[in-house]
User: What shape does this take?
Amino acid sequence: MFSILTLKASGSRSVKPLILVACRHYKVRKKPIDIHAVFHPRNISRQPQLYDYFLVLDFEATCEKSNQAMNCFQQEIIEFPVHKVNSNNFETEAVFHSFVKPVINPQLSNYCSSLTGISQVDVDNSLELSSVLEDFDRWMTNNVVTSEKSFIFVTSGDWDLKKMLPTECRDKNIQMKSYFTDYVNINKSFAYTMGKWPRFGKGRIPAMLALLELSQIGEFHRGVSDCQNIISIMKSLADKGCVFKPEENT
Assistant: This one.
């Protein structure tokens, strides 16, 4: 343990921080230090993670351009991507990806297609959510659950797993698997590590990439690309000492 004191030498206007280092037999040694150098993120090494694997997820859903239209619009998931990421090296080991056919509002708006890059043909040729979730559960069994390794989902925000999926499953009488309950909110992980919220008008992921000086991968608002960008953000935060924790523990 240590504590930091700010002392002013007699007859001097300079103020220097000192670190008091607790030694064996309660001896104390005084040593001037550069506080900013010690606590700079670059000087923090990567820490062991709490989970063996991260399942990085980012849904895309049906949408309208105006807020007024969205107030009475029932969204449905139209893209369902998940990347299985090894927590030791942050490399992707497996990918699940499927477009999803909406049934309440089956016709995509021009705004939705323009924003996400997802076409009407993409969703028309896809399965409905219930079937996609069955496919995903088989993928989980083959690639994640049977490995006897710990895992947790990672999203940018609470929307995907706290609002969107539970709401759509409830409205369509679909039983949501319990493994979706726990997740890491990468936005909060960023805030705790960097000391600031990623507040840019174009979205959290672009903001985090910009503040971490990372290059954009693919197109924003496309689920599979957003997953890749989240992984890039996670790797950068891990290099700064971040340990990713479940939402309720952050």
Notes: The chain is about 35% helix and 20% strand. The chain has two domains: 2-39, 53-249. The radius of gyration is 23 Å. Residues 53-249 form a domain with the Nucleotidyltransferase; domain 5 fold (CATH 3.30.420.10).
